[in-house]
């Protein structure tokens, strides 16, 4: 791949120093002074690159790799050619993620679009009744509404709108084109471009004549510390209660979170998921892409939901569910096997009739 000027290589980190920072073990101390500057897939790694492997399927790629170092667990270390330094870790995937943060700190959250120093850039508007702590950056064309409060070290991207009375904590990044209203946001929150936070929930009552009457939406959105919300995701405010996203939860792009939904701590929600109103999601729940979650149900702590599932009823804590309607994974896999077997039998019978 040609040189990437968007994310240029790091000036360099000694392997010995990197191992110490990652809590990894350098298999050969003689390699401690080697320098890594970038991360790369094994297949195209060059001198100065750091890679990682999780299974033996990379064996063929290792034979031609020119990486400076590879992260892996002890069981895979014998596969690594002697010319490549080995960093041993019991959790190589996690260690590689931390190495990426060290080598590319600017890529960990949306970068500033302009070179303006901290403060209010020309072309931005901050209402006189808004309150900004020290070292807050407001980029051009951003709008900060009446009575809004933004904590120290936070940055509001170009074209973003922070509504009246919104509270944003410290060290937050609100990227370009985000809109936030009726929301309280904690510290170290990242919201990616185009996300919509705190708009009306979807609520209507039958009218006296054909049609529907809008139900007032007067709740809030509460986003706790260390949450990350992907591009073009929408989080509706509550009807009368609050919509809540718990500490450390990570939400992918293009997810819909309905009104009054409560999501626990440290959940992972992948792109395309739709969560209907008043759903309760426990801590540590993982939801695969394009799953649909019915409203007014409860998903227990630690549950896992397969991609493209349709969840219509409660899921107990710690269970794995999949399919439409979602059911325990063992039942879903058995049903899929039976469908595949019946389909194969029909094809065979049809082929026999053709003969």
Automatic annotation (TrEMBL):
Top enzyme class: transferase
Annotated UDP-3-O-[3-hydroxymyristoyl] glucosamine N-acyltransferase non-repeat region domain residues: 33-101
Transmembrane domains' residue ranges: none
Superkingdom, natural source: Bacteria
Keywords: Acyltransferase, Lipid A biosynthesis, Lipid biosynthesis, Lipid metabolism, Repeat, Transferase
Active site: 259
Pathway info: Bacterial outer membrane biogenesis; LPS lipid A biosynthesis
The protein's Enzyme Commission number: 2.3.1.191
InterPro entries: Hexapep (IPR001451), Hexapep_transf_CS (IPR018357), LpxD (IPR007691), Trimer_LpxA-like_sf (IPR011004), UDP_GlcNAc_AcTrfase_non-rep (IPR020573)
NCBIfam families in UniProt: lipid_A_lpxD, PRK00892.1
Protein name: UDP-3-O-acylglucosamine N-acyltransferase
């Amino acid at each position: 791949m040609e040189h990437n000027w968007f994310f240029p290589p790091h000036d360099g980190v000694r392997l010995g120093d990197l191992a110490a920072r990652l809590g990894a073990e350098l298999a050969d101390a003689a390699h401690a002074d080697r320098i890594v500057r970038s991360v790369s897939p094994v297949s195209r790694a060059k001198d100065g690159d750091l890679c990682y492997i999780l299974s033996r399927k990379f064996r063929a790629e290792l034979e031609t790799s020119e990486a400076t170092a590879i992260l892996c667990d002890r069981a895979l270390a014998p596969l690594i050619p002697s010319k490549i330094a080995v960093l041993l870790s019991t959790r190589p995937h996690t260690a590689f993620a931390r190495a990426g943060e060290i080598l590319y700190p600017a890529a960990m959250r949306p970068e500033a679009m302009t070179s303006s120093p901290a403060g209010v850039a020309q072309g931005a508007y901050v209402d006189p009744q808004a309150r900004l702590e020290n070292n807050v950056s407001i980029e051009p064309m951003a709008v900060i509404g009446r009575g809004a409060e933004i904590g120290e070290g936070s940055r509001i991207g170009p074209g973003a709108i922070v509504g009246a009375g919104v509270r944003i904590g410290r060290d937050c990044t609100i990227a370009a084109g985000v809109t936030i209203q009726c929301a309280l946001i904690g510290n170290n929150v990242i919201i990616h471009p185009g996300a919509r936070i705190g708009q009306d929930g979807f609520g209507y009552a039958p009218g006296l004549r054909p049609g529907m009457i809008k139900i007032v939406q007067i709740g809030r959105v509460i986003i706790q510390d260390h949450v990350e919300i992907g591009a073009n995701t929408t989080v509706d405010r509550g009807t009368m209660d609050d919509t809540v996203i718990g500490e450390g939860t990570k939400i992918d792009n293009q997810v819909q979170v309905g009104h009054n939904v409560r999501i626990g701590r440290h959940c992972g929600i992948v792109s395309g998921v739709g969560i209907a109103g008043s759903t309760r999601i426990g801590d540590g729940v993982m939801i695969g892409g394009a799953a649909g979650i019915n409203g007014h149900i409860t998903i227990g702590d630690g549950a896992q939901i397969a991609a493209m599932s349709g969840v219509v009823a409660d899921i107990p804590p710690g269970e794995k569910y999949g399919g439409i309607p979602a059911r325990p994974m063992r039942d879903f896999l058995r049903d899929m096997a039976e469908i595949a077997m019946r389909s194969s039998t029909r094809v065979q019978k049809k082929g026999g009739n053709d003969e």
